[in-house]
Amino acid sequence: MKRTTPSLQTRMNWLIDAVVFSSGLLAILSGIYFLFLPAGGYQGGRNPMYGVTILFTRHTWDDWHTWTGVAMIAAIVIHFAIHWRWVVTMSKSVVNAILTKGDHLSKGSKFNVAIDVTVAISFLLTAISGIYFLFVPASSGRGTLDPGLIFTRTVWDLIHTWAGVILIGAAIIHFAIHWRWVVKVTSMVISSLRARGNAVERQQLGVSEA
Q: Mind listing the pLDDT tens digit for each residue in 90-121?
C-alpha cells in the first residue's frame, strides 16, 4: 500500500492551524473563567466567586488569556495571508451571487461562507478589543484608567466578551465542517513524522553496527 505524504504547503497549513487551535483553546478556557468569575463587585458582595482559585490564580489566568490571545492573533493573521486568494475568490463569488441574484453557490458553500464571515468579523472585534486592553491597563497608581478611545472601557469589555462568545460558537461550527480534513491531514502528518523518526532510527542503528 502506497503511503501518502503531505506536501510542504499542507504541513504548513496544518502547523498553523494547530497553533490556532491550541492557543485558541487556552484563550477560550481562560475567557470562560473570566466570563463566570468577573472582576468587579467583590467588595460590594455582588461577586462572591471573585476570590475563588480554580487551578491557577486570577493573575495567572489573566496572563494565559493575554498571551495565548496574542499567539492566536498572530497565527490567524498568517492563516488569512496564506488563504488570501481563496478569501478574495469566495468574496467575489458571494458578491456576484448577491448582485446577480443567481444561484452560483451551493447551500453548503453559502453556509460555509456565512460561518467564515462570522468567524472573521467576531475575531476582528475580539482582537481589536483585546489589543485595547493589552495597551490600556485596567488601573494605575491614580485609579482606574478609561481614556475613552472610541468607546468607554465598559463598552470595549462588552464587545470583547460577546464577540468572543460568538467567535467560540462559529469556530466550533467551522471546526466541525472541516473535521474530515483535520482528521485526514493530522493522520498523514503524524504518519509522516513517524516514518521519518523510524528512518532516522534505522540510520543510526546502521551507523552504530558499522
A: 777 777 766 666 556 677 777 887 888 898 89
Per the domain annotation, does 159 fall within a domain?
yes
pTM of the model: 0.72
Given pLDDT bands bounded at 50, 70 and 90, which one contains residue 163?
very high
Read off the C-alpha cell for 6: 503531505
Alpha-carbon gap, residue 38 to 40, rounded angstroms: 6
Task: Note whether 126 and 74 are same-domain residues.
Answer: no
Q: How does 9-33 read in b/e, with b if 16+ C-beta sit within 10 Å?
A: ebbebbebbebbeebbebbbebbeb
Could you tell me what percent of the chain has a pLDDT over 90? 11
Residue 36 lies in a domain: yes
| Cell 478569501, located at residue | 87
Q: Which residues contact residue 43 at a Cβ distance below 8 angstroms, ignoring those fewer than 6 apart? A: none
DSSP 44: T
